[in-house]
Design brief:
Immunoglobulin-like; 511 residues; alpha/beta; eleven-stranded mixed sheet
């Protein structure tokens, strides 16, 4: 199936359709053939006292033409203020029709909307939509967004940042199209835009997140350094107005063998380290603790093959630390990714000379409940600590689906996520003093929209995850205002994606 067909018609034959808020449930009379898909709010984020457009697509999947009446069933406090289509619809066989309504909520609320279609007095299809309306904010036109007001924290809170959302690869949004509840508050944005970086900085620091850990990709090894997906840092963050408000560090994505790592020690010390030093480590916003830059490494065990043995990796790490000292730092903190509990693997990481272990995410098998996912993470964190082989910097994971909804699929809603964060904070505060283990906590993930883990504001739960972070880690008051671009006349940021989308539609029509 082509991507655009997935975009427009995914879920037509499903009983349960994903939606904003949580789920859209559809039931169809066995005597009818009317299908409902994409019963959704069109803006990523909806506010009280502001018109939100809700739309639904109907398809006559039967063998005969049909006429039906569509009706919204609304909770108390929500009203229709605009209807852009006649609610009596005639569909020929195979025909599709989109209906839309403008709704307004009296106050901030979480609620459920209903949609019912009747033909000849009988219900032939219905759907439900869980919806969140954020608190009302008066719209006004500003020249630019207000400067961030950081929420102070006693522990440094960082979030992994997945920088895949580039202009020339809009197809990476494909799995989000299948899950419209994941639509970011910024829409299908491009990360090269400094305004996008400023919104992310504002939202992060105002909820207690002080730094991003960007996945960093090399395109080839053995020569001058070239990068993939680096625009989030170089074009977004570095060119943004609030670049001095947000710290950053790197996670070296060296898993692509022969491409993402190094060809030998010379490549590491002559090409890679100087590039990192000049472009990142010396940048005033790069994370340094104890006057040491932090470098996260995704697959440290792959360096054993790249450099020809464990002792060579240990030597290379010493050379990297010495290069940092020559540049005026007091060394370099090296953190290796591992989300398992094998003693042998942790011992190997220690022999390599890594300072700490960390988990990019926690793998929890068998599609667990939120309670099971929380329990499993805490158990892995505690066992890693109790093994005592290599100290850890603790990570809290919010969800997982994989890029193609493969294997285990789970999600922890914001109230349960807050509980997880409180338990993680307690673990961190009891870590040995004056170690990174007691100074940092990592959040998985800011924006892995395709892979199914994300805490940035988005359609389903709005600012729910970020509010949980603020409540747990910040000393700031719970009461605060979360702005979105339309509040101040900014955005949208999905122009490149919409151009590509129209091209795909034209291609399908042409074929």
């Amino acid at each position: 199936m082509s991507l655009i067909k997935t975009l427009s018609f995914a879920g037509l034959c499903l009983v349960t359709l994903r939606s904003s808020g949580a789920e859209t449930n559809q039931s169809v009379s066995p005597l009818a053939s009317l299908r409902v898909s994409h019963f959704l709010p069109e803006p990523p984020i909806s506010r009280a006292k502001r018109v939100a457009t809700i739309s639904a697509q109907f398809q006559n999947a039967g063998a005969n033409a049909m006429t039906f009446r569509a009706q919204l069933i609304l909770p108390k406090g929500v009203r229709i203020v605009r209807s852009g289509s006649d609610n009596v619809v005639h569909l020929e066989v195979g025909e599709r029709r989109k209906l839309s309504w403008g709704l307004e909520a009296k106050a901030a609320m979480d609620c459920e909307l209903g949609l019912q279609a009747k033909a000849d007095g009988a219900v032939v299809a219905n759907a439900s939509l869980k919806m969140e309306f954020l608190p009302a904010v008066r719209q006004k036109k500003l020249v630019y967004m207000p400067e961030p007001r950081p929420a102070p924290t006693s522990i440094l809170v960082g979030a992994h940042n997945c920088p895949l959302w580039v202009t020339n690869q809009p197809q990476l949004w494909a799995n989000v199209i299948k899950h419209p509840e994941r639509t970011p508050a910024l829409g299908f944005y491009t990360q090269e835009n400094p305004e996008v970086a400023d919104w992310e900085t504002k939202w992060a620091v105002e909820h207690g997140i002080s730094f991003f850990i960007y996945c960093w990709y090399r395109t080839d090894q053995g020569g001058a350094v070239k990068t993939r997906f680096g625009s989030a840092i170089h074009d977004g963050l570095f060119k943004s107005r609030f670049a001095d408000k947000m710290k950053f560090t790197l996670m070296w994505e060296n898993q692509a063998k022969g491409i993402g790592g190094v060809s030998d020690e010379h490549d590491l010390m002559t090409n890679l380290m100087p590039y990192w030093m000049e472009n990142y480590f010396k940048h005033p916003s790069y994370v340094k603790i104890d006057n040491k830059p932090l470098l996260f490494i995704y697959r440290p065990e792959f360096l054993v093959q790249d450099l020809g043995g464990e002792s060579n990796v240990a030597r290379a790490f010493d050379l990297m630390r010495e290069a940092c000292r020559k540049a005026g730092f007091d060394g370099l903190y090296l953190l290796g990714e591992y989300r398992g509990l094998e003693r042998g693997h942790l011992q190997m990481m220690k022999r390599l000379g890594l300072d700490y272990t960390f988990a990019y995410c926690w793998y929890v098998p068998n599609s667990p409940t939120p309670e099971q996912a929380i329990k499993a993470q805490l158990a892995d964190i505690e066992e890693t600590r109790d093994l005592g082989i290599l100290p850890e910097v603790v990570t809290a994971s919010q969800a997982w689906s994989g890029w193609s909804d493969e294997g285990t699929i789970w999600k922890i809603p914001p109230p349960d996520y807050e509980m997880l964060l409180r338990k993680v904070k307690e673990v961190v505060t009891h870590m040995p003093a004056n170690t990174l283990s007691s100074k940092l906590v990592l959040l998985d993930n800011w924006n892995e929209w395709g892979e199914g883990h994300y805490i940035a504001p988005y359609r389903e739960y709005g600012f729910g995850y970020l509010d949980a972070v603020r409540k747990v880690f910040s000393r700031g008051p719970d009461r605060h205002t979360d702005l979105i671009p339309e509040d101040i006349g900014m955005g949208p940021y999905d122009g490149a994606y919409r151009v590509w989308e129209q091209q795909q539609i034209q291609n399908i029509k042409a074929n």
